[in-house]
UniProtKB/TrEMBL annotation:
Keywords: Kinase, Transferase. Pfam families: RelA_SpoT. Pathway: Purine metabolism; ppGpp biosynthesis; ppGpp from GTP: step 1/2. GO terms for biological process: guanosine tetraphosphate biosynthetic process. Signal peptide: none annotated. It comes from Catenisphaera adipataccumulans. This is Putative GTP pyrophosphokinase.
Length: 212
C-alpha cells in the first residue's frame, strides 16, 4: 500500500476523484428534484434520505488487489464502477422502482449495469437495487461521462444492511462465529422483507397516486 501512496497523492488521481465527486452531485440533484416534485404535486416524499460517498483509498486498493488488477488510473476507471456511490433510502419498495425507472428515463443518463438484489437477494439475505449509471459532467473544455453506483433501499433493507455490515461484512470473525450468526441474519432479512411487503400493501390500500 505504501508503494502506491505517491500515486494517491498525485494530481491526476485527485483530479479523477474530484470528477467522481462532481458526478455524485449531479445524480444527487436529480433525486432531490424528483423528491421536490413529488412533495409539491402529491404531498409526499418518496425519498427518506440520501447518502453520498467516495470509495476510500484502501477500499479501492483492496478491490484492485482482489481482482489482480494494476493500480493505474485507467484500470481504476475501467474496472471499479463504485468509486462514486449514492444510496437512496425510501419508505416503500414501490418507490424504489419508480425512482429507478424515472432516473433511467432521463436523456443524460446511461445504464451500464443493473443488479436487482431485491428480486434476487444475496444468499446472506442482502436486499437492495444497484444501478451503475453514467452521467456527464461539464468541465471548462470537455464533457466527461462518469460512472456512479446508485443503491436503492427501503428503510428496512438499510437497517438490515447497516447492522449486518457492523456484525459481519468485512469483519475477520472466525468461521464458527460466522456460521452461528448467518442463520439469524437471514431470519432478520426475512422479517425485514415481510415488513416491506406489509407496509407496501398498506400504502396501496391508501390509494396513493403514482407517477408512471
Ligand atoms: P465500500 O467502498 O466499502 O462502500 P464486490 O462485492 O464489491 O467485490 P461488486 O459487484 O461491486 O463487487 O458488489 P455489489 O454486490 O454490486 O455491491 C457492493 C456494495 O454493495 C458494497 O460496497 C456494499 O455497500 C453493498 N453490499 C453488497 N453486498 C452486501 C452485503 O452482503 N451486506 C452489506 N451490508 N452490504 C452489501 P462495499 O464493497 O462495502 O464498498
Amino acid at each position: 500500500y505504501d508503494q502506491i501512496a505517491d500515486q494517491l497523492q498525485s494530481l491526476p488521481y485527485r483530479q479523477l476523484m474530484t470528477y467522481y465527486r462532481c458526478a455524485l452531485r449531479e445524480v444527487e440533484t436529480k433525486f432531490r428534484v424528483l423528491d421536490d416534485q413529488f412533495s409539491l404535486f402529491y404531498d409526499r416524499n418518496p425519498i427518506e434520505s440520501i447518502e453520498c460517498r467516495i470509495k476510500s483509498q484502501s477500499s479501492i486498493y483492496h478491490k484492485l488487489k482482489k481482482r489482480n488488477l494494476p493500480f493505474t488510473l485507467e484500470s481504476l476507471e475501467n474496472n471499479i464502477f463504485d468509486i462514486a456511490g449514492i444510496r437512496v433510502i425510501s419508505s416503500f419498495s414501490d418507490d424504489i422502482y419508480m425512482l429507478a425507472g424515472t432516473l433511467l428515463k432521463q436523456d443524460d443518463i446511461r445504464l451500464v449495469e443493473r443488479k436487482d438484489y431485491i428480486k434476487n437477494p444475496k444468499p446472506n439475505g442482502y436486499r437492495s437495487l444497484h444501478l451503475i449509471v453514467e452521467v456527464p459532467i461539464f468541465l471548462a473544455n470537455e464533457k466527461k461521462w462518469m460512472k456512479v453506483e446508485v443503491q436503492f433501499r427501503t428503510i428496512a433493507m438499510d437497517l438490515w444492511a447497516s447492522l449486518e455490515h457492523k456484525l459481519r461484512y468485512k469483519k475477520d470473525l472466525p468461521q464458527s462465529r460466522l456460521d452461528e450468526i448467518s442463520q439469524d441474519l437471514l431470519d432478520c432479512a426475512d422479517l425485514c422483507a415481510q415488513l416491506d411487503e406489509k407496509m407496501g400493501k398498506l400504502k396501496r390500500t391508501e390509494n396513493q397516486p403514482v407517477i408512471e
